[in-house]
Amino acid sequence: MQRVPEGIADLEWDLYKNVYGQHLAQDIVSEEVARFLQNKSPERPLVLSFHGSSGTGKTLVSSMLGNHLYGSAMSSPYVHQFVPTLHFPLPDRVQEYREELKSWVQGNLTECARSVFLFDEMEKMPPGLIDVLEPFLGPSHVVFRTNYRKAIYIFIGTSGEEVIHRKALESRQAGRDREEITAEDFQEAIARTVYNSTASGFFQSSILRQQLITRFVPFLPLSRRHVERCVRSQLCQRGSCGRGDVVEAVAGDMTYAPVQGHYFSTTGCKAVPAKINLFL
């Protein structure tokens, strides 16, 4: 099995340098990952649940985590990604999927205790399926003498985005600095929302009832200045750093909400590459 790199401080630097407008995600992820990896014998796995609207950086951050642990996230044999529409497409086969998922996770933990499991598009996950992981996430389960407690689980979804948007909007309208928003403002509200939402893979989930999520990680909606930073970054990757005209054009072509104020990009930075192609 590959050794986990010591330089996880590089993850923190990468998060602060390349993820825009997400001070909460930067702080929570860097703190929790560092604390977890420094503990040679953790009591339970690290379980993070990423929440927020499309284009705010959730997938980017999960990829960074995989990259810093294993050099190349999606091609590493120790990083496993599950997408409901691809892996669990048929609602009437949930029981079958539960058995497959349990077996898959168990097998991979036997192969590598420090496995990373990414569950994308949690809002499309069939309710009840993810609860099969409950024994792996708590402190009591033993898997074939494997130290399964060293694993990392990341859940990614848009559920809870309304709660996050509301808080960000209230803060903006009150004239407060974005960085004054704290993670504690969201933990209970996100948990309650995803537990009660039928459009959530955590609907009525025992994982939430047992409080097995280490932290809920809110991704805030992005303002125009964050979109501009996304555009600049993409342009530099294409060797066109100096194109301020393209930065202005792309940022100006995005849709912002609400109607009163136009504070936040409705698609985050997701549409940036396509729009650069139009204006470059």
From TrEMBL:
Pfam families: TOR1A_C (PF21376), Torsin (PF06309). Residues 225-277 form the Torsin-1A C-terminal domain. The keyword Ribosomal protein does not apply. InterPro entries: P-loop_NTPase (IPR027417), TOR1A_C (IPR049337), Torsin (IPR010448). GO terms for cellular component: endoplasmic reticulum lumen; nuclear envelope. Belongs to the ClpA/ClpB family. Torsin subfamily. This is Torsin family 2 member A. The lineage of its organism: Eukaryota, Metazoa, Chordata, Craniata, Vertebrata.
